[in-house]
Amino acid sequence: MSKFREDHAATLLRDGFVDEFKKVSRDNGIDLSNANLRGADLRHVELRNADLSGAYLHSADLRGLDLSQAKLEGASLHRARISGAYFPADVRPEELRMSVDLGTRVRCIPK
User: Pick from 31, 39, 36, 29: which is nearest to 55 by CA?
Assistant: First the structure.
């Protein structure tokens, strides 16, 4: 079993403390790479430029998010709620479907 990074910012998000997360991440950028965000409601978090590479987003709520510039390589979206989300152009729809349905890790198109 892989080891996820458990930092303060990811814990705040997973536990639903969005306002506190926004204070912590305001000037530091959002690095949630390899974070365990299982079941997190991320709808009120600005993740457009976030690094979500390798993140575990099982059952997370991503509805309506703009992830157009986010790094998603290696993220797992198993059972995530993604309706209305805007994903980066380097992620194929088939990759999203497999990740949501089967839990595979997202592979991005090389630039």
Answer: 36
pTM comes to 0.89
Domain boundaries in the chain?
Answer: 1-111
Task: Pull the structure tokens for residue 29.
Answer: 């950028």
Sequence-separated (6 or more) residues with CB below 8 Å from residue 48: 66, 67, 68, 69, 70
* Distance between start and end Cα atoms, the chain: 30
**Alpha-carbon dihedral of residues 42, 44, 46, 48, nearest 10 degrees?**
60
What secondary structure does DSSP assign to 66-78, as a single string? B-TT-B-TT-B-T
Give the pLDDT of residue 100. Answer: 98
Six-digit token string for 36: 């365990």
Identity at 92, one-letter amino acid code: R
